[in-house]
Amino acid sequence: MIKVSEQARQKLSGLMTEEGFDAQQDFVRVGVKSGGCSGLSYDLKFDKTKQDEDKIFEDNGVKLIVDKKSFLYLLGTTLEYSGGLNGKGFVFNNPNAQRTCGCGESFSL
After folding, report:
1. d(Cα 70, Cα 54) in Å, to the nearest integer?
2. pLDDT per position as a tens digit, 76-91
């Protein structure tokens, strides 16, 4: 479903600990919402609970939750992290996106 690169796993694990979440037990919630310059934008946050219609995936030791509405938009996506001076932070490499904005935070199908 969603792949997590090694760099993204390391960064997510560190951020979860900083914010009081347990990377072994809690979830990274990944979703899509309306907005952004291309029409849809990615949503990434930490969560301790699963909703009834959520789908749960695990890749590279990261537990991911995706809501039913976002599932088809994110199929096959890889979550990566690019740090450093010119790094963009978390980057979604989504094969379903036909158009993305320059910042990489929004897309359209």
Report:
1. 10
2. 999 999 887 777 788 8
